[in-house]
């Protein structure tokens, strides 16, 4: 396989607010053309990480390297990184055209060139019709496109997006995700975005970094995060249901996803606590004898308290909360 | 529902009472300046209504006294005070808006220190220094002195306006390639223009009817409020009233023009938002 080019590299990046460590010695390499998601619960430093990358916040130590160049001490305008804020941060005193043209005007590009670039960007994002509109008169989805257009006219080295989908209606959100992927494919650029919602990372990303308390617990494809979470914390965080755990020995746990278990037969038992309908599928939330909560796929709701037998087709072994191996049962 | 309408009427009643209290002196001022003296000052219980209109008071006031020079001096000083105040208050407010909020609020309180002491206490040492510097009776000296009082309030108002602008807009401007100063003057200042307009208006008005500094720092080439004072001390009350009416007119006009900007938001914004 061809060696991929490193687009951005973070080395020992640390950021503190007072005594609180927000980013704890982060090391990360993101390659050219990636659509990389930073996923984590709120308050884990996701947005701070983006802000440090773009240069709005200074890191306390460590370095940020873009295209092989150390940009740690450069101001945001010298880093060639574009960022789309969660609020989109459109300039309210300018129309759509003015907003998109703004970075080019700052760069003192000539008028015709600006017009050409703005039109190209607007066409790419399907907002050519609203170029003359006021910012206050366009929808949330359009605002996001304007913000994206403004980011991409500069031809930046990479794009950072802070919670790009959180301000959109649930219905638009789904298509917006696909469009982001399409945009990445069209431009071939590198995108990094931050989200707290794992559903926004599952289909479109190349890799996902799971951030917890200022540290990446695991950086991998979403599929691997789901199947082989590196820690019990990730196993708990990823998936519609947290991974179910049962004790194996004093410091070892067996973890499994609902669909890895076969209910109805087998030697293990658990008592039904609630029936949970997710989409079309019924899940049994059960409690094992030693007090673990587990989730099984069940074809129908059953009476609470029913004893359910189950066996595992596949499971992961965790020792001291860390992944050891995956076991397939023949 | 019923209670709501009753509250509304009550609000109108209270507002009317307050308005009458504030407008009554102004009304009397105009009444005196537009009436012949025998209907107003010469009577023991003058009529509260305008019965005879005359411009004689204005004509005698404007012809007997040099009106033009003081008016221009007042205008020059007022605009200079507005400009000086904004030139200092905009960057000051921007700096404060970047600071820790508690510390910034504390500093704003200290800025108002100058307003706590009587103007006279400040005016005397200042005028001594200005005489030494050869600035006595000059426009710039008076404007500088008056700015002492206008700058704190202007800074406070503009700080509120800056704080109301979402932080991300400024961050975005920096990401888009703007430096700090350009962000301030080409992006944030237009966005805060309502607050800045209010600050300018209040500074202008403060200077326009400011008396203490004016009479001490600029007695030989006086401003309009000083002329009014001279008239009153000389006993020509009617002319004083006419002058006072003339002084009030630009104030009323400016306030009406700029009233859409004068929202509670910009006056309280310094402590909220």
UniProtKB/TrEMBL annotation, chain A:
<keyword id="KW-0813">Transport</keyword>
<keyword id="KW-0547">Nucleotide-binding</keyword>
<dbReference type="InterPro" id="IPR003439">
    <property type="entry name" value="ABC_transporter-like_ATP-bd"/>
</dbReference>
<keyword id="KW-1003">Cell membrane</keyword>
<dbReference type="GO" id="GO:0055052">
    <property type="term" value="C:ATP-binding cassette (ABC) transporter complex, substrate-binding subunit-containing"/>
</dbReference>
<dbReference type="InterPro" id="IPR017871">
    <property type="entry name" value="ABC_transporter-like_CS"/>
</dbReference>
<dbReference type="InterPro" id="IPR047641">
    <property type="entry name" value="ABC_transpr_MalK/UgpC-like"/>
</dbReference>
<dbReference type="GO" id="GO:0005524">
    <property type="term" value="F:ATP binding"/>
</dbReference>
<keyword id="KW-0472">Membrane</keyword>
<feature type="domain" description="ABC transporter">
    <location>
        <begin position="8"/>
        <end position="238"/>
    </location>
</feature>
<dbReference type="GO" id="GO:0008643">
    <property type="term" value="P:carbohydrate transport"/>
</dbReference>
<dbReference type="InterPro" id="IPR003593">
    <property type="entry name" value="AAA+_ATPase"/>
</dbReference>
<keyword id="KW-1278">Translocase</keyword>
<dbReference type="Pfam" id="PF00005">
    <property type="entry name" value="ABC_tran"/>
</dbReference>
<protein>
    <submittedName>
        <fullName>ABC transporter related protein</fullName>
    </submittedName>
</protein>
<keyword id="KW-0067">ATP-binding</keyword>
<dbReference type="InterPro" id="IPR027417">
    <property type="entry name" value="P-loop_NTPase"/>
</dbReference>
<dbReference type="GO" id="GO:0016887">
    <property type="term" value="F:ATP hydrolysis activity"/>
</dbReference>
<dbReference type="GO" id="GO:0140359">
    <property type="term" value="F:ABC-type transporter activity"/>
</dbReference>
<dbReference type="InterPro" id="IPR015855">
    <property type="entry name" value="ABC_transpr_MalK-like"/>
</dbReference>
UniProtKB/TrEMBL annotation, chain B:
<dbReference type="InterPro" id="IPR050901">
    <property type="entry name" value="BP-dep_ABC_trans_perm"/>
</dbReference>
<keyword id="KW-0813">Transport</keyword>
<feature type="transmembrane region" description="Helical">
    <location>
        <begin position="237"/>
        <end position="258"/>
    </location>
</feature>
<feature type="transmembrane region" description="Helical">
    <location>
        <begin position="139"/>
        <end position="162"/>
    </location>
</feature>
<keyword id="KW-1133">Transmembrane helix</keyword>
<dbReference type="GO" id="GO:0055085">
    <property type="term" value="P:transmembrane transport"/>
</dbReference>
<comment type="similarity">
    <text>Belongs to the binding-protein-dependent transport system permease family. MalFG subfamily.</text>
</comment>
<keyword id="KW-0472">Membrane</keyword>
<feature type="transmembrane region" description="Helical">
    <location>
        <begin position="9"/>
        <end position="34"/>
    </location>
</feature>
<keyword id="KW-0762">Sugar transport</keyword>
<dbReference type="GO" id="GO:0005886">
    <property type="term" value="C:plasma membrane"/>
</dbReference>
<feature type="transmembrane region" description="Helical">
    <location>
        <begin position="77"/>
        <end position="96"/>
    </location>
</feature>
<dbReference type="InterPro" id="IPR000515">
    <property type="entry name" value="MetI-like"/>
</dbReference>
<dbReference type="Pfam" id="PF00528">
    <property type="entry name" value="BPD_transp_1"/>
</dbReference>
<feature type="transmembrane region" description="Helical">
    <location>
        <begin position="103"/>
        <end position="127"/>
    </location>
</feature>
<keyword id="KW-1003">Cell membrane</keyword>
<protein>
    <submittedName>
        <fullName>Binding-protein-dependent transport systems inner membrane component</fullName>
    </submittedName>
</protein>
<feature type="domain" description="ABC transmembrane type-1">
    <location>
        <begin position="71"/>
        <end position="258"/>
    </location>
</feature>
<dbReference type="InterPro" id="IPR035906">
    <property type="entry name" value="MetI-like_sf"/>
</dbReference>
<feature type="transmembrane region" description="Helical">
    <location>
        <begin position="183"/>
        <end position="205"/>
    </location>
</feature>
<keyword id="KW-0812">Transmembrane</keyword>
